[in-house]
Amino acid sequence: MKSTTIFTICSLLISIFSFGQTSTEQFETESNGSTSFTDNGVIFNIISHVSVFDIQSNYPGTGWNGTANDNRYIDNSSNTESPPSFSIRTTSNLFKVNKFWLFLSSLELDLNVTGSITVTGKLSGVTKFTQTKTNGFATSLGSTNGYTLIDMTNLNGQNYSNIIIDELRITANGGFRYVGLDAFTWVKDSGIALNTTETKVSKKEASIYPNPTNGPLTIHSEKSSEAKIYSTDGKMLKAVQVQKGSNEINISEFPKGIYFIKTANESTKVIKN
């Protein structure tokens, strides 16, 4: 019984790590004025759409790490352009969003104003989800230093934390003219499925071989779907239709390196020699 219990726990751990690694970026080691940051080995760019967003560290104690005040975060430093809008975009990996905290106020940092935010997730420029939150915002510093938790596992009653994206866009509307973002919790989608020879956690919908490859690949799929090939910076390079059974594709046109092939809900890392 004891060995069975230990084995079950190990299997569960393998399953968890197969789906990705959760990390929280608190921005405390990032440089003031930077428009990029690195967390868990992944580079993110801060893209300003309306107003100017970058790392802020000039006002110690005005951030929020999820449990206590901290010193650095993303903000638009009271820029007057409206409605403020920016994206967090990966250059080296796909990801999922778990939660983050927002400070939303007027330009004068008055929290007691009326506004809303729109949260959008994109993958290769295609919108995967978009939701507008209209209530439940902090109206005083209170116990969270004025920050509001945006929980992607239950945003407007829906769970968006399992959707793979390469860009998270946030737009503030109404009276919200200043936006600060801190404690960005995300899940790294490595595209690597760990296996055990003793148990099969779940049946894969597709197998891809040989891996590594010089170009030719066979995709054996359990159902018809579309196979999309991505570079490590999240750009979709090619899409092909695959039928149930064996399918032959070729990536000889791509340089040597690492690519991700996504079929249905699965992602496989492929090495091109």
TrEMBL record:
InterPro entries recorded: Secre_tail (IPR026444)
Keyword Isomerase attached: no
Location of the Secretion system C-terminal sorting domain: 208-272
Alphabetized NCBIfam families for the sequence: Por_Secre_tail
Organism: Chryseobacterium jejuense
Name under which the protein is recorded: Por secretion system C-terminal sorting domain-containing protein
Top-level taxonomic group: Bacteria
Signal peptide as annotated in the record: 1-20
Keyword flag Signal: yes
Keywords per UniProt: Signal
Annotated Pfam families: Por_Secre_tail
